[in-house]
Amino acid sequence: MQRYSRIWIYMISALVFMISVTGMIYYGYKTFYFDKEPVGTTHYTDHYVLISEEMGNDYWELIEAGAQQTVAENSGIYLDSIAPEKADNDQLLRLLDRTISMGVDGIITQGVEGERFVELVQKGTERGIPILTIDSDVQGSERKAYIGTDNFYAGQLMAQSIIEQTTDQQFVGIVMGRADSINQRERLAGLKDGIQSNDQIQIVGNMDSNITRIGAAQATYSLIKKYPKITTLVGMSALDGIGIVDGLGEIAPNKEVYITAFDVLPETLTLIDKGKIAATISQDPEEMGRRAMEVMLDIKQEEYVEGKIFTTTEIIDAAKVKQRGEQK
Ligand code: BGC
Fold first, then answer.
1. Distance between CA atoms of 315 and 119, rounded to whole angstroms?
2. Ligand 1, residues 138, 183, 188, 286: which to mutate, most atoms within 8 A of Cβ?
């Protein structure tokens, strides 16, 4: 009898042991197994970083998507994307400094005005880290190349669009992303250059949107209040045109204002289609990202790279929006 109960005890202990081992393996596997490995993080040899102007901005997400396309087409490289939470030059410079100190294989960043940027690019270069500017250039720095729009020319296109589409005297209010952004200054300079020989068109004032839609609506509100004679509003960064339409809808829904926007985010194109925005100046952020990453890989291969690579920009009006729709 005693013998039988001992056998039972052994059998039950063996069963408990097997259940525990199975449980340990199963839950251990669940805990440490990652269903989807983060793409490209495992077997890469080169680590690159994209520093955008602001987190969660639609335009910068297109740049990132373009850059990731090039990454996906090449093995062994990994691209991290970082940005200040809200557009802020000092924070971007701090991120750039930290990234250089980390010792990555290359950095693609928006160019920022001032000595500090130039110094940091020099520091990166001394450490063998190639730095490319995207979207805004700093020509006096040791960046290896700039990939993006010719922003002075884009400003001239804004002028051309106003000149072509209006007939009488125009008083222009400008909604800018940020006055301390290089591309905004270049676009403004191009716009001024484009209208200088035309005395029918006069700029009355400008205001920052801080590259947000709500900021653009508020800037519109302030501009119209301060200069009620405004007949034309131009938006100089990606969300400004949409914000201008919001702002006008609030403050002067029946006022006839000619609007030129910037960039081809889907909502801007819809507003052109609806006749609320007359035209926009296109940029190609995806192409910027794609090209920038390609240039980075060329540098890695020690190939020659152009110092300035301009991506396309053109005036997009209602007819062009239709064409683009049909091409899809
Ligand atoms: C500019 C970017 C800016 C973005 C804001 C674009 O037109 O080129 O510098 O960050 O607008 O949404």
1. 36
2. 183
User: How far does residue 211's CA lie from ligand 1's centre (Å)?
Assistant: 7
pLDDT in tens, the chain (328 residues): 566 778 888 888 888 888 876 666 555 444 333 333 344 446 789 999 999 999 999 999 999 999 999 999 999 999 999 999 999 999 999 999 999 999 999 999 999 999 999 999 999 999 999 999 999 999 999 999 999 999 999 999 999 999 999 999 999 999 999 999 999 999 999 999 999 999 999 999 999 999 999 999 999 999 999 999 999 999 999 999 999 999 999 999 999 999 999 999 999 999 999 999 999 999 999 999 999 999 999 999 999 999 999 999 999 999 999 998 887 7
Task: Compute CA 219 distance to the chain's CA centroid, rounded to the nearest angstrom.
Answer: 21
Q: Which two tokens stand for residue 218?
A: 């508020």
- The answer to whether the beta carbons of residues 131 and 121 sit under 8 Å apart is yes
Across-strand partners of 292? none
Pocket of ligand 1 (CB under 6 A): 53, 57, 59, 135, 177, 181, 183, 211, 237-239, 262-263
What phi and psi, each to the nearest 5 degrees, are found at residue 130? -70, 135
Sequence-ordered list of residues with C-beta below 8 angstroms from that of 68, at least 6 positions apart, any chain = 79, 289
Amino acid occupying residue 146: Y
Q: Is 286 helix (H, G, I), strand (E, B) or coil?
A: helix
Minimum CA distance residue for ligand 1 atom 3:
237
Q: Give bridge partners of residue 148 from the DSSP assignment.
A: 310
| Distance in angstroms (rounded) separating the CA atoms of residues 151 and 58 | 19
**Amino acid in position 108:** I
- Using CA atoms, how far residue 89 sits from 85, 148, 178, 210, in Å, is 11, 19, 10, 12
The pTM (predicted TM-score) of the whole model is 0.86
Whether the CB-CB separation of 110 and 136 falls below 8 Å is answered with: yes
Best residue for ligand 1 mutational test, from 112, 174, 214, 237 (most atoms within 8 Å of Cβ): 237
